[in-house]
Design goal:
mainly beta; DUF4399; DUF4399 domain-containing protein
Length: 132
Amino acid sequence: MKSIVKSLFVLAIIAVVSSCGQKEGVFFENLKDGQEVGTSVLVKMGVSGMEIEPAGEVTKGKGHHHIIIDDNWVKTGEVVPADKTHIHFGKGQTETTLELTPGEHTLTLQFANGLHQSYGEAWSKTITVNVK
């Protein structure tokens, strides 16, 4: 009887641990929605369910990050613009420092393929930061 109870306990622990895993998508590793930050903001970018690779090739299940400041995610298949508010990390970078003006800003993390074509809303994450 003890071994059955022990086995059920172990299975319950395994179920709880596996349900705590990161769901597929992109995420900010070090920032939370509504967080107060300084004007110089370290951003660590993560992804689960795809691999990071530099821009250039289109490989299924792979891509790279973009940060969009004060704008929305990019529709699936559309190319992420390249300007001062749409920052590309085509070398496969997963960390950067942004310089932001005081006030409230949205940061959208957008994953895209090797040609910078967006994987859409499902592969984006938007948070708001309050810059002091």
